[in-house]
Amino acid sequence: MNPPGWAILLAAVGFCYVSGQSSNGAPPNFQCPVHQEVSPCVCNVKKNGLDIMCEFTDNYHINKAMAVLKGKSGIVVYYLKLRHNNLPKLQSFIFLGIDIRHLTIHNSSLAVIEESSLSSMGIGLTQLDLSQNSLGSVPSPAFKNLHHLLILNMNHNKISVIHSRAFEGLDTLEILTLYENKISTIEDGAFKGLAKKLRRLNIGGNGLTAVPKAVGHLENLRKLELQENSISHITEKDFEGLVKLDSLGLAHNHLRTVPPRAFSHLQELNSLELDGNSITHINPDAFVGLEVSLQYLRLGDNNIHQIPSDALKPLHRLRHLDLRSNNISYIAEDAFTGYGDSITFLNLQKNNIKMLPSMGFDNLNSLETLNLQNNKISHIPEEIMEPIVDTLRVVDIMDNPLLCDCELRWYKEWIKNLKDKDDEMMQKKRTVCTMENEHREYPVQNMPMDRMNCVGKNMERTSASSAPTLIVSALLPPLLMFTCL
């Protein structure tokens, strides 16, 4: 999973720094220098200050533009964006005397940040983006005076080790992202000084083989992203200090089992991502401690052979259960007993399910979305779906070997509600079934009812007010595959 863009990071904090004066006490100056003075950089006036961008240039021209800005009294640079440049070193005092609030140095071959290059920016700087450069280590001395920094983005660099006290001085930092570096070692005191304010930490896309002990000191952390590492095991002690954690991402690691009480200290955890591992076994006590907090659980793309009902039963508030792309071939009658009454979203696509249990859905009293796409199901009788008909708004049964039989009459009538809708994607690929005696496929909408000799109970639902409308999606991503009318 890709990290969010810088714009989303800014929105996550929701911070807008507006001041009636510049950081040096002079009245704010929102007037751009003459274009020729800062060329090839470009300056625009924004509501809160100047927006200056320097792209595809070098150290000489950037230094020249900064020298011009230093000569302007009381100037406020709300955004300074240095992108796609040849800037291997950030020289000492390059920004001295310039009031900069948001600084971006992106994709500019930056490998060295001298200690005094950022020291003059401690009063006003709130957001610093150093992503996609060539930094081999955290430039700790350059950060130590940035006492108002809220967001630090160091994604896509070449950092391999986070040393103790690497971020000392950044005592107001709320978001720290180090996605896709080469980090294999994080020393125990690496995040010392950040515990008071840090809310989000992204160390995904690195070379970690275990949850670093250093994260346990971040007692106010709300979101921890450890996806796309090489973590092969987790223990109860790994998350012991994260008492306020709301979201934990462990997707795309090398986990094979989920041990007992692994998350027992995370009693405020709302979302847990374990998809894309190699999990074959989930201990019945794996989710102890999450009984009243966990609502979103992602277990897709693993090697799970049956719904882990024993482990899931304590989760009385579970709303979203994703078990896509596993090896589940059988759903027990009591698979959702004891916890299913709060589930609104159930994803079982891309498994090996052949039959649906006659009473398997009886406990899913709140279910709105059911995805059974790409299994081996041939029959879906109305009696099986009846317990969830009143709440179910979306169902996807595409890419199954469905037989055109009388059991599908109810579904055909629901699909008819789509016939006048302008849904280009739907028109390209529809749910189909096979007439065995003809060896021919039909769209479910066009089953030849006159040749099917259906008798007995009338399962058709023709009243728009008596049943929800179903839209079957063809090509949308797994978590966004439905549209409700």
Which tags fit this structure?
485 residues, mainly beta, Leucine-rich repeat, LRR (right-handed beta-alpha superhelix), 16-stranded mixed beta sheet, two-stranded parallel sheet, 24 strands, elongated, disordered C terminus, signal, LRR_dom_sf, Leu-rich_rpt
Tell me briefly what this model is.
With 485 residues, the protein is mostly beta strands. It contains eight helices and 24 strands.
How would you describe the overall organization of this protein?
The protein is mainly β and 485 residues long. Among the domains are: 30-151, Alpha-Beta Horseshoe (Leucine-rich repeat, LRR (right-handed beta-alpha superhelix)), CATH 3.80.10.10; 232-421, Leucine-rich repeat, LRR (right-handed beta-alpha superhelix) (Alpha-Beta Horseshoe). It has helices spanning 6-13, 35-38, 59-70, 140-143, 309-312, 382-385, 409-415, 424-428; strands at residues 42-46, 49-55, 76-83, 89-90, 99-106, 112-113, 127-129, 151-153, 161-162, 175-177, 185-186, 200-202, 223-225, 247-249, 257-258, 271-273, 281-282, 296-298, 320-322, 345-347, 369-371, 394-396, 432-435, 440-443. It is elongated and about 90 Å long. Residues 400-455 form the LRRCT domain. It comes from Nesidiocoris tenuis.
